[in-house]
Amino acid sequence: AQSVTQLGSHVSVSEGALVLLRCNYSSSVPPYLFWYVQYPNQGLQLLLKYTSAATLVKGINGFEAEFKKSETSFHLTKPSAHMSDAAEYFCAVIKTGFQKLVFGTGTRLLVSP
Amino acid sequence: EAEVAQSPRYKITEKSQAVAFWCDPISGHATLYWYRQILGQGPELLVQFQDESVVDDSQLPKDRFSAERLKGVDSTLKIQPAELGDSAMYLCASSGDGSSYNEQFFGPGTRLTVL
After folding, report:
1. Which residue of A1, A65, A81, B104 has the fewest C-beta atoms within 10 A of its own C-beta?
2. Measured between alpha carbons, how far is A113 from A15 in angstroms, rounded to an integer?
3. Do B106 and A101 touch (CB under 8 A)?
4. Whose CA is closest to A6, among A83, A103, A100, A104?
5. Based on C-alpha coordinates, what's the Rg of chain A?
C-alpha cells in the first residue's frame, strides 16, 4: 500500500533560516507526491506536486521539493523562512492510476523572530 | 476565485445527537471527497463521489455515518448518533475529473466537538 512518512512532528527555525521538512514514501511503482500546507482552522492548500516530470518541483511561496528515487524521498525546502510560513505541512501520495490521496501525519513548522 | 464552501464552520453537539455537514464544491468539479482529520493527524478519506455515485467509502463507518450527493453537485455528510471519538475536523474537497493528476481543492472544514 502507498504511504508516506514524515520525520519530525515539529520543526523549529529562525526567521531567515533554511526550512527542511522531510518526507519518505513507500511505493512499488512511481507515485505522485504532494505537499500541502494547513493554517490553523483552515483547509489544506496545495504547495506543489510531483507527477514524474521534473524531479525538482517548484511550488508557491518559495517552496520547492526534490524527488529522489534512490532515497525514496520528497523533502520540502525553502531557502529563507518567513514568519508567515508557520503552519502544518502534510506530505501525501497517490498511486498512479488511482485517485486516493494518502497523507502523512504532518509536520508543524514553528518560525521564531 | 472559486472555492469549496462548507458549513457550519464549527459544531458542538452532545453524544448520541445527530449532526450534518454540508459541502458545495467548485462549480463543474465532478469528484467530491469527504475527509476526517483527527487532531495531530493527517486527513483520512471517508468517502469519494464521482458525480452522484460513491466510488470509495471503504473507511466510512457505515453504522453511523452516511453521505449523499443526490444531484451530483453539493453533498451532505451525516453522523447519527455522534460519539465522543467523532470529534475532529471534517474536510470537503473537490477535483475536476477524478484523475490522479488532478489537484484536490479543500474547503475550510467543519470542526466538530462532541461532548
Report:
1. A1
2. 5
3. no
4. A104
5. 13
Q: Which residue do the cell numbers 492510476 mark?
A: A97
DSSP-assigned beta bridge partners for residue B37: B89
Residue A58, pLDDT above cutoff 80: yes
Copy the grid coordinates of residue B71.
Answer: 444531484
Q: Given this model, what pLDDT does residue B46 score?
A: 96
Determine, for residues A42 and B109 on separate chains, whether the beta-carbon distance falls below 8 Å.
Answer: yes
**What are the percentages of helix, strand and coil residues in chain B, rounded to 5?**
5, 50, 50
Q: Are B78 and B20 in contact (CB under 8 A)?
A: yes
How far apart are the C-alpha atoms of B37 and B86, rounded to whole Å?
10
Question: In Å, how far is A64's CA from the nearest CA of chain B?
Answer: 17
pLDDT digit of tens for each residue in chain B (115 aa)? 689 999 999 999 999 999 999 999 999 999 999 999 998 889 999 999 999 999 889 999 999 999 999 888 999 999 999 999 999 999 999 998 656 567 889 999 999 999 9
Give the number of other Cβ atoms within 10 Å of residue B51's Cβ.
13
Q: Quick one: cell of B95?
A: 477535483
Other Cβ atoms less than 10 A from the Cβ of A15: the count is: 14
- How near does any CA of chain B get to the CA of A16, in Å? 27
Which residues are bridge partners to A11 per DSSP? A109
What cell does A59 get?
A: 511550488
Interface A:B, Cβ pairs < 8 A? 60
